[in-house]
Amino acid sequence: MTKEESLEGQTHHTKDYVDPPPAPLFDLGELKLWSFYRALIAEFIATLLFLYVTVATVIGHKSQSDPCGGVGLLGIAWAFGGMIFILVYCTAGISGGHINPAVTFGLFLARKVSLPRAVGYMVAQSLGAICGVGFVKAFMKHKYNSLGGGANLIASGYNIGTALGAEIIGTFVLVYTVFSATDPKRSARDSHVPVLAPLPIGFAVFMVHLATIPITGTGINPARSFGAAVIYNDEQVWDDHWIFWVGPFVGALAAAAYHQYILRAAAIKALGSFRSATSN
């Protein structure tokens, strides 16, 4: 019998976990706290480092004359997943380790962060991404300009619908993993299976890149796509750029709804509360 089944069989039902209260929609008091600005700085620096290492890896791979040389697509996927693992681990206790506007958007929809914090994070992430790619261009200027700048594009042979679908599904996998890895109910129920949250999140990024690099180069992170687009500044890149915001945001919305209303049964709880209120 599992822990959950044994708990359900008890005559009294007490939760062995504590859900944090929903974040207020507008918490302007945060703007007066140093911890808020420290979190913005953490998101800025983390996204800068993320883009610097990953885009430099992409350019380094493309600069190899030998098709079998360099890190290959597998190495690129490891660079993205590994950096997310490292940076989420380093910043989770300061800012939550979002490093991605789509993750921030999903957590905002689930009332995990307030609107001012969500907007601040997205701005910090986008600026950090621009600076990170800027460093890559400064250090590898000739190769950067001639090898596509690490920008996201729809690959030859694929259409807009396919690219959009790939970004939606890829971001769904990532944000769903974020919710699952940080769920207090899961941590209490499965305490016999310790989970280091950054590890599954990093692996989710790695696996999605394996599937999506051939289609779009893998966005699933609007800041990553935006930073590369700003620095490379190519017309075709900007033509496709909307996909790398709409797709991740739709995927994040779907993941938040699935986790909160299906897996966590928030819809059933809300319906039960409504019935109780109307019956009294």
Characterize the structure shown.
The chain has 280 residues and is mainly alpha-helical. The chain has one domain: Glycerol uptake facilitator protein, CATH 1.20.1080. It is 69% helix and 0% strand. The chain has 13 helices and no strands. Helix 4 packs parallel to helix 12 and helix 7 crosses helix 12. The longest helix is centred in the N-terminal third of the chain and has 29 residues. The protein is globular, with a radius of gyration of 20 Å. The protein starts with a helix and ends with a helix. 40% of the residues are buried. The N terminus is likely disordered.
SSE topology sketch:
Elements: H1 3-8, H2 34-62, H3 72-91, H4 101-109, H5 115-139, H6 141-146, H7 160-181, H8 184-189, H9 198-216, H10 222-232, H11 235-240, H12 243-263, H13 266-279
Helix pairs in contact: 2-3, 2-5, 3-9, 4-5, 4-7, 4-12, 5-10, 7-9, 7-12
Short summary:
The protein has 280 residues and is an all-alpha fold. The protein is built from 13 helices and no strands.
Keywords:
280 residues; disordered N terminus; Glycerol uptake facilitator protein; 69% helix; mainly alpha; globular
